[in-house]
UniProtKB/TrEMBL annotation:
Subcellular locations according to the entry: Membrane
Main location: membrane
SUPFAM superfamilies: Metal cation-transporting ATPase, ATP-binding domain N
Superkingdom as given in the UniProt entry: Bacteria
Gene3D superfamilies: Calcium-transporting ATPase, cytoplasmic domain N
Keywords: ATP-binding, Cell membrane, Ion transport, Magnesium, Membrane, Metal-binding, Nucleotide-binding, Phosphoprotein, Potassium, Potassium transport, Translocase, Transmembrane, Transmembrane helix, Transport
GO CC terms in record: membrane
Protein name: Potassium-transporting ATPase subunit B
Membrane in keyword set: yes
Lineage, broadest ranks: Bacteria, Bacillati, Actinomycetota, Actinomycetes, Kitasatosporales
Organism: Streptomyces morookaense
Record's keyword annotation contains Transmembrane helix: yes
Length: 148
């Protein structure tokens, strides 16, 4: 497909990279991104699971194997989705929504989180922030870079 600028695109966005904020490992972002995407049947959600498996060697998990998991579906109002499981809450979604979710929980947003999302947007990609709340508190882990 050609987009409005004449650029060849796949027609659907795919995860191309997991970009950690300072102090976080890319594998940690990949794990949280995969976990939050297990119930996401969109092409973007499937591509996140595949990228985590192929690039980071994370075994493919299925939503049915996470006993007691509470899946949080994406809505136009929340602009994020995720899962609550094993004392952890993982969310992925629009920058403003995820930052607000972290801050509502008294958590920290790494200084470079907004910079990373701005860089991805300026390069023509779509950024999705990934955040985690566990015994260490709520925090942004990094960004999923979606490309057409």
């Amino acid at each position: 497909l050609l987009d409005k600028t004449g650029t060849i695109t796949y027609g659907n966005r795919r995860a191309s990279e997991f970009v950690p904020v300072k102090g976080t490992m890319a594998a940690e972002v990949a794990d949280a991104a995969q976990l939050s995407s297990l119930a996401d049947e969109t092409p973007e959600g499937r591509s996140i699971v595949v990228l985590a498996k192929e690039k980071y060697g994370l075994r493919e998990r299925h939503e049915g194997e996470l006993v007691g998991a509470e899946w949080i579906p994406f809505t136009a109002q929340t602009r994020m989705s995720g899962v609550d499981v094993d004392g952890r809450k993982v969310r992925k979604g629009a920058t403003g929504s995820v930052i607000a979710w972290v801050e509502e929980r008294g958590g920290s947003v790494a200084e470079d989180a907004r910079t990373l999302t701005d860089e991805i947007s300026q390069a023509g990609g779509t950024p999705l922030l990934v955040a985690l709340e566990d015994e260490k508190g709520a925090r942004v882990l990094g960004v999923i870079h979606l490309k057409d």
